[in-house]
Amino acid sequence: MYQEQKLAKLKSSRLFQPVCLVMRERREWSGTAKQFKEILCQHAPDAFTGWYRAPGKFVEELKEIVPALREEGIGVSVPPESALVTLGKTSTERPQQPE
Predict the structure, then answer these.
(1) Is 85 helix (H, G, I), strand (E, B) or coil?
(2) pTM exceeds 0.85, yes or no
């Protein structure tokens, strides 16, 4: 129960849905923190109006929601562990449920 509540809180992050949207269109994405911010703002411009200006803040928020993204089949690698922000579909991807 606690784990489900924790994941629900992470999934409510402003970044969660836009990252999932980006990854529905591709198998992987890699880029700088600035490029990460730009691609998210392109996919969900209204979600980030009045939000952080610094790309590093987007990456910090991304680090927080990694467990929720992993649950959706999205692997995340961020600096300093890697040179670039990297998103990729994992092999444990769950089938999408009909809406």
Answers:
(1) strand
(2) no
